[in-house]
Amino acid sequence: MNLEEFVISLKEKGFVVLAGTKGLKKSVASINMMENPDTLKWVKPGEILLTTGYFMKDDEDIQLNFIRELSEIGAAGIGIKKNRYILKLYEKVLEEADDLALPIIEIPYEFSLADVSSMFYKELYERQSQRLRRSFDIHEEFMNIVIRGGSINELTDELGNVIDNPVLVTDEHGKIISNKNFQDTKYYIKELFINVNNEFVLNTEFIKKYYKDDELPKEAIKFISTIGDKEVSFRIKPIVSDKEIHGYIIVPEINRKMIELDYIAIERALIIIMLERMKEKAVDEAKHLMRRDFFDELIEGKIPSEDEMENLAMMYGLTPLYKYSCMVLELKDLHNIKGNYLEINLIRQLKDDLIKTIDEISLKEKINTISITRSAYVIAFVPIKNSENPKDIRDFMVTLGKDIIEEFLRKYNNYNITIGIGRAYKIVNLSKSFKEAMESNKMIGKLNNKGKVVHFDDFMIYHLLNSTGNTDLLKEFYNSSIRRLAEYDEENKTNLIETLEIYFKCKGNMSEAAKSMYIHRNTLLYRLDKIKEILNTDLENGDENLEFQLGIHIMKLLFVYNGETM
Fold first, then answer.
1. How far apart, in Å, are the Cα atoms of 146 and each of 19, 137, 150?
2. 36 and 165 share one domain
3. What does the record list as coiled-coil region(s) (predicted)?
4. Is residue 129 part of a domain?
């Protein structure tokens, strides 16, 4: 109970506050009585001291020193019996009490000090009883919500009703999970909240500044900010178990200042919300682990029973009747992210938005694509319903991939994303499609592929060459075909290998090849003459030209798998 509440209960009985009104908000723990100044030795912080004032009745200095000593002790206030020995306190004493915010209460003559003590303890008992009853009622109201299967949103609504102020509940990362009358954006002050992709998130990095690095944040934080022309106190209470943070409750004192019962209500709600969060996490974690284990075993080909695989596949959205093509989408920029809150939240947001984009594009194609995340990858399983032609499937998947990247980059145009695609297989062989998609993603860049979306079939010649398993034979073929030209390029910093490759791609069309390389036709003629001289060829022999083309592919293959040309 604070002193103001006690004074209000005594006002009708003639008790008057003479000075120190700024200190009326102090909490009062007990009452002490004294007639001898030596009693100050036993006065405790938070006590009201009752006295007749006999020992200081005619001495201003004693009165001043007495007031100052009480203030130093931390007393809640002083009650002085009226007209017994002191008819009037000195003006200087009252001014000092105002400066020290030490309330001085005048006790009417008809009340003894024992009467005042009895009234105080009676009032304290009644308030404590009322608090316990209300605390029990609040706890029962919250528990009833839980028993009937209510959500954290319902608990937040009820808490907001009890304390008559807006309430916001976030998870441990600051993401808002429930909201009661906190919709007005003016409450999202920049010190406490950050805007991530047009959604407000509690700035947990700012909150952590109030706590030591090696401790869980348990105590409530009071943060004062100005909203419009009004000073508003924000109360932030961590939702914490013994070992883990589960979130935060944020209450701005918009409608009224909170009282003790409000804090009790917040504590009661906090315990129940914590238990609900722990339950939700346990359920979500179990579901997540089961789903993760299935897809991990699926893409690794570790599910031994085809029947078991098909049953689990249907549980997680895959249709055993269809073939699926695996698409691996890699966010290149995520590998080096260190992992502070903002970056972790950004990674989650990027992956979520990428999956949403896949779903939106798939919906337009009237297919049900299933997506999962692994590290910096999003892995999508795309059903193939209407075609058995490998070229048609390849073209459909590449177009789908390009549409996904185009749509995603509308929002995140500064991110580098590539897509590798595997061939279509039945679910029992889906691990093959995943490996092909990963291999395709690996080949992007290493073979100087200019595209962002590649299919396993795009590198078929490399797969065939590599499938021989005889690296020495490949090296020998490279040495006898194209090595001299590669060495000339390296020694003279030229690009004759690239020139020859583009010349072959353009089927010997000089104008098209020159245009493709953005060079003059005469420059191309000069380069081709140099190539003919080095390779001792006229580039007219079809068999020789095939050997040179294979040599270029083998050179790239050896670089990819050995890290250097041989």
1. 49, 14, 5
2. no
3. none
4. no
